[in-house]
TrEMBL record:
<feature type="repeat" description="ARM">
    <location>
        <begin position="269"/>
        <end position="315"/>
    </location>
</feature>
<dbReference type="InterPro" id="IPR016024">
    <property type="entry name" value="ARM-type_fold"/>
</dbReference>
<dbReference type="InterPro" id="IPR040144">
    <property type="entry name" value="RAP1GDS1"/>
</dbReference>
<dbReference type="InterPro" id="IPR000225">
    <property type="entry name" value="Armadillo"/>
</dbReference>
<dbReference type="InterPro" id="IPR011989">
    <property type="entry name" value="ARM-like"/>
</dbReference>
<dbReference type="GO" id="GO:0005783">
    <property type="term" value="C:endoplasmic reticulum"/>
</dbReference>
<dbReference type="GO" id="GO:0005829">
    <property type="term" value="C:cytosol"/>
</dbReference>
<protein>
    <recommendedName>
        <fullName>Rap1 GTPase-GDP dissociation stimulator 1</fullName>
    </recommendedName>
</protein>
<keyword id="KW-0256">Endoplasmic reticulum</keyword>
<feature type="repeat" description="ARM">
    <location>
        <begin position="93"/>
        <end position="128"/>
    </location>
</feature>
<keyword id="KW-0963">Cytoplasm</keyword>
<dbReference type="GO" id="GO:0005739">
    <property type="term" value="C:mitochondrion"/>
</dbReference>
<dbReference type="Pfam" id="PF00514">
    <property type="entry name" value="Arm"/>
</dbReference>
<keyword id="KW-0496">Mitochondrion</keyword>
<dbReference type="GO" id="GO:0005085">
    <property type="term" value="F:guanyl-nucleotide exchange factor activity"/>
</dbReference>
Length: 519
């Protein structure tokens, strides 16, 4: 039951008068009344405070010398628990005076100011942008360097974490020296047994990874791979502490966001460290560490020059140890890593594509209806094994494993890139071993799928082109040839002779000749 709307209004009116002549006693009693109302029903009281225009009065009350200051900051913290109050707090000009209060020596002022700043910038884009134009990054880092107590550090961390989501502030924090503070916290707490050590280690290493999500801040800390920060983070990977292993692997994945960094890291032997880490987690599998290490390897495998180096370092063999994993996030990254590794690498694609166990698992995951990501990646890897090996043996392994029907389904995906990958793989299957694939092609209704793709106005030119190539390839099979004839393909194909894309119209003429000759 919300008791005192009347004396809340009264208190708000009094506060308006009192704040102008700064009579401390009357202000104090008004603030107490506000805090009471907020404790009783935060949302209603906040609406009232907003309606009565009290927020713009608060900056003048946030005076470092005043005894009211902790209460004012507490009121702001309470009000900013409501999402609808965060922008009004920013607009009322509360951020600069709150940031100044971070210099206070009064513990209660610091505590309430930290809460207020943390709540205002929680989940709010506009307030983070306002913070970027203050010197809050420097103030917070300076304050952090002075703290010895765990609670104080935690309070600053709570303000830092939401702020660091903004890329401009990330860079400001890096320039203000936050990273060195975080590395010190890690060094001090890594062997700690106490709850608070474990909590601080997690917060500091998580925040470190968050700073690396910004392109500029990441590149600044990488310093061409010579940076001391980069070197320190590398040393986390062989650590015995799971939290540090995780942060180290995530940091590498974040440093590996451009080709230059990836090439440098592979040349300096990071792959070996990540493989050793993964090996330690095959048995005592920590899923988050597995996921992070695989993410790092996947990113490192993107530049073409890295692929063969990583393959000869044995990356594929270590990754395959996780084929048995039942965890979708791990399955997803495992598939992505293998797909990146075999891109343009015929020998590796051949080796993996003739690995019956792998193909069997891929076919199983192609049916993982609950996990669209895993399903999509399995299909893409199945197709990639065929496209990059162009090998009859691989095609046979996929046919025997029951993969053909999944590639036909993939050709109907809503993602053009996946459709195309599927059609190219199906074209290779038809060219390399039509006899063995015939039964599966018939069973999966390949011909009617191709008819749909060619008749659909929305199909991209490359889809139309590859569908026609495939039609020509399957004509050598009697049952498929019959289906082509019964579906009147000639009508659809002759229309495509007028297609605006030259490659498509040319292929349509060739396909039409082929269909006519064999009708």
């Amino acid at each position: 039951m919300f008791v005192f709307p009347d004396n809340l209004s009264e208190a708000l009116e009094k506060l308006k008068l009192a704040s102008t002549d700064s009579a401390t006693d009357s202000v104090e009693s008004c603030l107490d009344c506000l805090l009471k109302a907020l404790a009783n029903n935060n949302t209603e009281a906040s609406v009232k405070i907003q309606e009565m225009g009290v927020l713009p009065l608060l900056p003048t009350l946030l005076n470092p010398q005043s005894s009211c200051t902790p209460k004012v900051a507490n009121i702001i913290a309470e009000v900013a628990k409501n999402e609808f109050m965060r922008s009004p707090c920013v607009e009322a000009g509360l951020i600069p005076p709150l940031v100044q209060l971070l210099n206070s020596t009064d513990q209660e002022v610091l505590l309430q100011t930290g809460r207020a700043l943390g709540n205002i910038c929680y989940d709010s884009q506009s307030s983070k942008e306002q913070f970027a134009s203050t010197n809050i990054a420097e103030e917070l880092v300076r304050l952090f360097q002075k703290q010895t107590e765990h609670e104080k550090k935690e309070m600053i961390f709570e303000v830092l974490a939401p702020l660091a989501e903004n890329d401009v502030i990330k860079l400001q924090l890096v320039e203000a020296g936050l990273v060195e503070c975080l590395l010190d916290v890690v060094a001090q707490t890594v062997d700690g047994e106490r709850e608070e050590d474990i909590a601080q280690l997690k917060t500091a290493s998580d925040l470190m990874v968050l700073l690396l999500l910004g392109d500029e801040s990441m590149q600044k800390l990488f310093e061409g791979g010579k940076g001391s920060v980069f070197q320190r983070v590398l040393s986390w990977i062989p650590s015995h502490n799971h939290q540090l292993q995780l942060a180290g692997a995530l940091a590498i994945a974040n440093f590996a966001r451009n080709d230059g960094n990836c090439i440098h890291m592979v040349d300096t032997g990071i792959v070996q460290k990540l493989l050793e880490l993964l090996d330690r987690h095959v048995e005592e599998g920590n899923v988050t560490v597995q996921h992070a290490a695989l993410s790092a390897l996947r990113n490192l495998a993107i530049p073409v020059v890295n692929k063969s180096k990583m393959l000869s370092a044995g990356v594929a063999d270590v990754v395959l140890k996780f084929l048995q994993s039942e965890m979708p996030p791990v399955q997803f990254k495992l598939l992505g890593t293998l797909r990146m590794l075999i891109d343009t690498q015929a020998e590796a694609a051949d080796q993996l594509g003739t690995n019956g166990k792998l193909v069997e698992r891929l076919v199983e995951w192609c049916e993982a209806k609950d996990h669209a990501g895993v399903m999509g990646e399995s299909n893409r890897l199945l197709s990639a094994l065929i496209r990059h090996s162009k090998s009859k043996e691989v095609v046979r392994t996929v046919i025997q494993g029951g993969g053909v029907k999944h590639l036909v389904t993939m050709a109907t995906s809503e993602h053009m890139i996946m459709q195309n990958e599927a059609l190219v793989a199906l074209g290779l299957i038809a060219a390399l071993d039509l006899v063995a694939a015939e039964k599966d092609f018939v069973g999966a209704n390949l011909v009617s799928v191709l008819h749909k793709l060619l008749s659909d106005e929305r199909s991209a030119p490359e889809i139309k082109y590859n569908s026609m190539i495939l039609i020509c390839s399957v004509m050598g099979s009697e049952p498929l040839h019959k289906e082509v004839q019964s579906l009147e393909f000639i009508d659809v194909v002759s229309k495509l002779r007028a297609h605006e894309n030259k490659t498509v119209s040319h292929q349509a003429s060739l396909t039409e000749q082929r269909l006519t000759a064999q009708s």
